[in-house]
User: What shape does this take?
Amino acid sequence: MTIRSSYDGGRTWESFDRGTVVTADWSGYSDLMRADDAHVGLLHEGGAVDARDRSEKVDTARLRDRSGSPGSRSTGCSRGARPIRRRTTGCTARGTRLASRTVHRRERGGRGRRGKGPVLVLVGFLCAAVVAGLLLLPHREGGAACAARTVSSWAVDSRLNAEFVRYGDDASRTDDWTGGDGSHSVRLPDGRVLWLFSDTYLGPVHPAPNPAGQNHSWRDASAPFVRNSAVVMGRSGRLERTVAAPLFPETGVGEWRWPVAARVEPRSPGSAEKVVRVLLWTRTQGSGSWIYGVPTATEVATLSLPGLRLEGITQILDQRQVSDPARRVLFGTTAVTGADGRTYVFGGDDGQRPVHRAYVARVPDGRLADAAAWEYWDGKRWRSGAAPAPVLGDGQRRGVGSAFGVVRQSGTYVLFTTAAGTSGLRNVTSYWACSPAGPWHGPAPALTPPLPRDPVAGPGIAAYNPQAHPELGGDGRLVLSYDVNWLDASPAAAQAQLSRNVSLYRPRFVTVRLGPPG
Assistant: This one.
């Protein structure tokens, strides 16, 4: 028997694998009962052979909690308590007294066999309230109430789409951005928005028709290509200039950096001076299935304000010691400020599976560039220097794409990702949780954002990397971007398509509203 908990007033419940095991023996009908003002109990049928065994056994475990510590969602016990490894599950803790009593009774006409019958577990009120899902409790992070959230409506953001077309097609400069992916943004203290991109095309764009006579803007095959770039958007929402590209230099032959999430934070804890911290994925040139590079390390770059000058790069997590590249984890696909003031940094593993696993780390405010300050969720608790454990993903139906985004709305975390399976590179789905470490509920029904119109493209075009941009929304609207690309096993063939039609390699935008499921 497993007790599954609810943290949103009973609207959703934990999956079986995250529940608390009461007994591994046969069990049948169960019910909750109130023992007194301070205790509730769980009564269920059980037997040595099956739940109908008429020889009954009643175990009572009464817990008197003198510590006054709040409940913990991971075990349903007081913080610092441990589960009781007996036939029944209660809690023990410092300052706690546990008394148990066993009563055996044989029914008239029974089979003369002693079994394990109804089990009554009396536990402290807080413990029982958690496991029974009777109260709406704060999540592991502690603080705001949590409720299920998913996309209730969405619409194309024509204004942002048009702005990136205008800037990308502007041929007045030859050293600016004309297309890229890995789209991330951060609001600067003076109101500007810094946009960060991974692989980027520079140079001029020519108006339609292209050399093939098609109605597409196009670029020369010899157009400059860099591994990262940054574009500044003014306070009016107009893209103004490309920061000297590449902004983050390559580390050596065949190794490069992709920028991902960015945050504005104090230069040091408590400092009034602000800087921009940019998380970087370091990747090394690979072969075969690793045409997009082998994951190598997570780094953090520091940019000055307001000038956006690169001051330095710090390595946070080196993954070269993990022999299997598919098991390496890079952090920074998204970063969220939690209710406790910490920054929660999400990451994912790599490999060629259609669905990946998500991981999470946390960092105190002002210490993103301090590797010693990072703590990783190891499956049970936050630990520095620990091997991270996945918080979402089963490798099949549930999980994330190679890049995904997370936002926090009140006490609820919402994760946006491409859907699992063959439809994943055209559909965006979501999960929600009350804590960055989960449990994550979903996936929700997917939305299918529009792709560029190109009769030649067919199934070769894909949408991926959904990212939320809270600084651009308002009035309950959340701006969501997704990258567009031409997928081809041959990089040269893909580049030819992206140059033939420049719209095939630019971010696109929708606005979404979040609400209760259904």
The radius of gyration is 27 Å. Residues 48-143 have pLDDT under 50 and may be disordered. Helices lie at 125-132, 158-169, 491-500. The longest strand covers residues 461-474.
